[in-house]
Amino acid sequence: RIFELMQELQKLQRENVKQEVKNYDFSTLNGKSNLLDFFEDKDKFLVIHNMGQGCRYCTLWGDGINSFLPHLESVISVILVSKDSPKEQRKFANDRNWNFKMASHNGKEYMKDQVSDENYDNAPGAVLYQIKNNKIYRKNDCAFGPGDIYCSMWSLLNLAGISDNDWTPQFSYWKRPEKLDDGGKNII
């Protein structure tokens, strides 16, 4: 039954009517950029809304999507946006081994207008845009949250009977051993 419901959702997403949006500005490590720039040579463009380096949950989605980024980029352009500065974004992405193109919305109008959850002005999710005749259209969007279909971790935990109330993602799972063979000096 779940498979059939997913097929129905996919059909609705394909048939969804597009809504024209403006060409929002962003900050990148290379300076100012805009939505049109991010399409590159593709006609579809996925913007991943990330709350920034302060959200462990957003990091979980970033880790998962990064693992199949080459597959996505074979058919659509992809960028991860957050409120963090481009320099902060790149440092965090490098620490996570993320390969995303990144941009900062700087907490400005893009996120306020395009966020998937109207109750928040900086909520995680994604928006798929299309370009036609140099106009940008919002095709589909989704919100990210524990238990959703966009992070396979939740489905795998559900198989084990572990709910999102029982587990919270962490930035790192390394635990300091009681005794360090190197003497344990200068640990950060």
From TrEMBL:
SUPFAM superfamilies: Thioredoxin-like. Transmembrane segments: none annotated. InterPro entries: DUF899_thioredox, Thioredoxin-like_sf. This is DUF899 domain-containing protein. It comes from marine metagenome. Pfam families: DUF899.
